[in-house]
Structures are given as C-alpha cells and as structure tokens.
C-alpha cells in the first residue's frame, strides 16, 4: 500500500506571471499579483510500468496530483474515459486517424468532475469546509456533487439561462443554488460578496487544473506514450487546455515522452471568441467579449482569467484558435451521432466543426492523428435535438 509520504510529489505553488513561489500547504487562491497559481512537483518514485496494476481512474497518477494523503481523496470513480476511433465520421472529414476522448461517461456527465474531484479533495485536505463558485452549469453541478461527497457546504451561482439539468443537479445534492440575471461574470461578482466561503472559481484556486490535466496524462498513456499530432479542445475558461499542456510538459520532464508536443487547438463560438480574437491579433491576453451568446453554454466566457496561459500553450505547441458558428456545431453534433452513434455535447461538437474547417484549409493534414475532446454527454442538452 502506498504510504501518505509518497502519495504525492507536490512541492510548491508557482506563479506563471511573476515567478513567485508559495507554500502549497495553506488555503490560498491567486498570487498577490493577481495570476493563477500552478502546482509544481518533485520527481516522483514512479515508473510507467507501475500504472498497470492501478485502478482505472484518475487517481492512478496520484504522485502527480496534489493530495498528500489517500484518506483525503474524494472520489466518485472519475477518470480513464475511452479514447474512441471515429472511422466513419473521420473518413467523411478526410481525417482518417481521428479519435475522440469521451468525457460524457464520467460522473455528473462532464469533464468538470475531474477538476471537482481533485479541487474538492485538496480543499478539504487544507481545511476548507465551505466553497462557493460561479458557473455556466456543469462545473457547478460537479463541485456541488463532490462537496456533498466530502461533507462540505457549497454555494453555486449560475446564470438564470444555465441548463435546467445543472440546476436540478445542484439542488438534489443539497447545495445552495443562486440564479443570476446575467452572465458568468455577474455570477462571479455575486460570489465575491458572500462572506465565509472559499472562492473556488475557475483558476482562483490552484487545483482544479490538476484534475483537468489528467485528460492529458490519460491520452498519453492510452496511446502507449506516443503523442498525437493535434489535440482539439473547446475553450471557455481554458482550464482543460492549460491542464493538458501542463500534463504533457510534466511527462516530458519525467522522460516518459519525447519529441514535439501535439499542436493544441482552442475552439470557441463566433458568439464568444475572445481567445480567438487575441490569437489572431497576436496579443498576449484577451479583451472582454461584448454580448456573449452561444448554444455551447459551457464556453460562454467573455474574459478568462487564464487567457494568457491558453495563448501561451497554443503558441508554444504551434497550435491555433478557431471560432465556429452555432449552426455548424449543431450540424456536426448530429453528424457524429448519425455516423458513430454517440450523442456529444455542443461544446464537444464545436471541436468537430473546427476540425472540418482546419482540414479544409490544410492546417490539419490527412495523415495527422487528431484527438478531439468531447467534454460532456449530449443527454444533458436535450434542447439541441428537435423532436
């Protein structure tokens, strides 16, 4: 059995903007300079071969996760989602080596469970017992569920237009739900005014990203440590794409992978595309997007706190940022279902609309191996399918 002393190789927290380091064993949010903090690790006593005997969940990588003691792990069985070939749909696009990482099969139905599992576990471990967060829906339902699992109190603020299923999920686990007449920024403003809660907003605590990075660890392991050419990700707050980039860099530092990293593609909606606009202009950070609106509600983030990290990840991997129309992503949602039998979420469908565009332009080559993240179950979005 793994001892608590060797369960995590967590060393410290580091600011990617000013370079300051911070003690990880405290309740902490942002760096004083206003930047998100990133968890850093020592060299773990871990070999690739060790993973084979471990349970097929994200905690198989516990040395590279921040929870120091196994008794503090809060889990609902999350992780190790399938990496599915899409042969018929890929052939239709002209991308024969197309794979989909299907996060719709994870607890609470979306990839948000990864960040919630690790974020709640570490918050509990350092002494947090009451959390609050703004959300577009799925993150709130995930964090509420894991808070309930941990015996913690949760306050979830979401726009009144958020999916009904997410509101019901928050309510059924006993969290306090506050509906806001506005966007996620307005929900964030409400959370800031609530005393007594730890603010678990996107990137305002250091550990959600550690849960999300396990998508990158799993992709590498599932491909036998041979990386794909391209990874395509729907980008709102950007935690997932930053996390995958972080994971792959950590694996390279361990010597488990070599060669160039996959070209990372950030996908947004034409109704809310601050990252795309910043990338096109060559800016180091984005500008707030006015009148943000898209059917892919999870990527309706007018200004992301970690935008500079998303843009850095794209630049350092030779990637790009693409915006797609709602009509196009909904068409791809139906086409993937028709050809492959899988009902994906609108955010995941945005990836496939982007892949079609990038293949037509030649940016994606016909022999590229491409991994697209479907970040949630389409069943959580019944309104996208007319009867």
Q: Topology of this protein?
A:
Blueprint lengths: L3 H4 L2 E5 L6 E2 L15 E4 L41 E3 L1 H7 L3 E6 L9 H14 L4 E5 L3 H13 L2 E7 L4 H9 L3 E5 L3 H9 L5 E2 L8 H5 L1 H9 L7 E5 L4 H16 L8 E7 L4 H8 L25 H10 L3 E5 L1 H15 L5 H16 L7 E6 L13
Parallel strand pairs: 5-13, 6-7, 6-9, 7-8, 10-11, 10-13, 11-12
Antiparallel strand pairs: 1-2, 1-3, 4-5
Helix pairs in contact: 3-4, 4-5, 8-9, 12-13
Word description of this protein:
- The chain has 387 residues and is α/β, with parallel strands linked by helices.
- It contains 13 helices and 13 strands.
- A six-stranded mixed sheet has the order 4-5-13-10-11-12, sandwiched between helices.
- The protein is globular.
- The mean pLDDT is 96.
Concise account of the structure shown:
Keywords: Lyase, Pyridoxal phosphate. By secondary structure, the protein is of the alpha/beta class.
Q: What is the 3D form?
A: globular
Radius of gyration: 19 Å
Structural class: alpha/beta
Strand residue content: 15-25%
What average pLDDT do the residues reach? 96
The low-pLDDT segments are none
Topology, number of strands: 13
Separate helix tally: 13
Largest sheet entry: 6 strands, mixed
- Widest sheet: strand ordering: 4-5-13-10-11-12
N- and C-termini, Cα separation: 53 Å
Give the ordered list of helices and strands: HEEEEHEHEHEHEHEHHEHEHHEHHE
Helix content: 25-40%
Keywords: Lyase, Pyridoxal phosphate
Organism: Kribbella karoonensis
InterPro entries: Ser/Thr_Dehydratase, TrpB-like_PALP, TrpB-like_PALP_sf
Cofactor: pyridoxal 5'-phosphate
């Amino acid at each position: 059995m793994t001892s608590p002393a060797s369960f995590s190789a967590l060393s410290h927290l580091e600011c990617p903007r000013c370079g300051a380091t911070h003690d990880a064993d405290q309740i902490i949010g942002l760096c004083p300079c206003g930047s998100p903090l990133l968890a850093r690790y020592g060299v773990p006593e871990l070999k690739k071969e060790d993973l084979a005997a471990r349970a097929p969940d994200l905690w198989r990588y516990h040395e590279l996760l921040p929870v120091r003691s196994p008794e503090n792990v809060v889990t609902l069985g999350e992780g190790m989602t399938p990496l599915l070939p899409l042969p018929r749909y890929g052939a239709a696009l002209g991308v024969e080596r197309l794979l989909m990482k299907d996060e719709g099969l994870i607890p609470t139905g979306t990839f948000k469970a990864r960040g919630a599992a690790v974020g709640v576990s570490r918050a509990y471990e350092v002494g947090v017992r009451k959390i609050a967060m703004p959300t577009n829906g799925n993150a709130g339902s995930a964090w509420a569920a894991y808070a309930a699992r941990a015996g913690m109190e949760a306050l979830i603020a979401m726009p009144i237009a958020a999916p009904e299923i997410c509101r019901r999920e928050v309510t059924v686990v006993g969290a306090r739900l506050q509906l806001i007449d506005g966007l996620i920024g307005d929900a964030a403003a409400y959370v800031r005014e609530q005393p007594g809660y730890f603010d678990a907003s996107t990137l305002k605590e250091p550990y959600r990203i550690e849960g999300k990075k396990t998508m990158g660890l799993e992709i590498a392991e599932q491909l036998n440590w041979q990386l794909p050419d391209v990874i395509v990700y729907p980008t709102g707050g950007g935690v997932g794409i930053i996390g995958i980039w972080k994971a792959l860099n950590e694996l390279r530092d361990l010597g488990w992978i070599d060669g160039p990293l996959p070209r990372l593609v950030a996908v947004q909606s034409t109704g809310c595309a601050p990252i795309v606009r910043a990338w096109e202009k060559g800016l180091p950070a984005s500008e707030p997007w006015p009148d943000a609106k898209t059917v892919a509600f999870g990527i309706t983030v007018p200004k992301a706190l970690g935008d500079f990290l998303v843009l850095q990840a794209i630049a350092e991997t030779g990637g790009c940022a693409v915006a797609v129309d709602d009509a196009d992503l909904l068409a791809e949602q139906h086409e993937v279902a028709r050809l492959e039998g899988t009902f994906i979420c609108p955010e995941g469908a945005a990836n496939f609309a982007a892949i079609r565009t990038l293949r037509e332009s030649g940016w994606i080559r016909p022999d590229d191996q491409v991994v697209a993240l479907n970040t949630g179950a389409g069943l959580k979005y019944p309104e996208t399918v007319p009867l």
